Amino acid sequence: MKRQPLAPSSLSAGSAEALRSLREVIAIDQETLAERADLDAAVVAKIEEGDYIPSLIEINQLAAGLGLLTYYLVATIELFGGQDELKAC
Fold first, then answer.
1. CA 28 to CA 55: how far, in whole Å?
2. 2, 25, 40, 48: which has the highest count of C-beta atoms within 10 A?
3. Predicted TM-score (pTM) of this structure
4. Predicted confidence (pLDDT) at residue 84 exceeds the cutoff of 90
5. C-alpha dist (Å) from residue 75 to 12, 32, 33, 59, 70
């Protein structure tokens, strides 16, 4: 079965849920993550609200800020973003 690319809305939702969940697991706030990731706190907030789709560079920075490999964060985003498509099946 061929995998379909995620729609931007799913990617945005996946980014929001994945980032929030991972950040909460390691018990840091948005400001701390932003500082660790060398990003503006407003960008982190917009990602978590689903109002902003991070670039690959920003995903890499966020992964570093979370202490994760970029691959792990991308896979988690894809997992969270694909939940709506799985529910529709």
1. 22
2. 48
3. 0.77
4. no
5. 14, 23, 19, 11, 9
**Long-range CB contacts (< 8 A, 24+ apart) of 42-45?**
44/19
Task: Report helix, strand or coil for 10.
Answer: helix
Specify whether domain 8-79 bears CATH 1.10.260.40: yes
The vertex-85 CA angle with 10 and 60, nearest 5°, equals 35
pLDDT of residue 86: 35
Range 36-62 average pLDDT: 92
Write the CB contacts of 17 (distance below 8 Å, at least 6 apart in sequence). 80, 81
Of 31, 70, 67, the C-alpha closest to 48 is 31
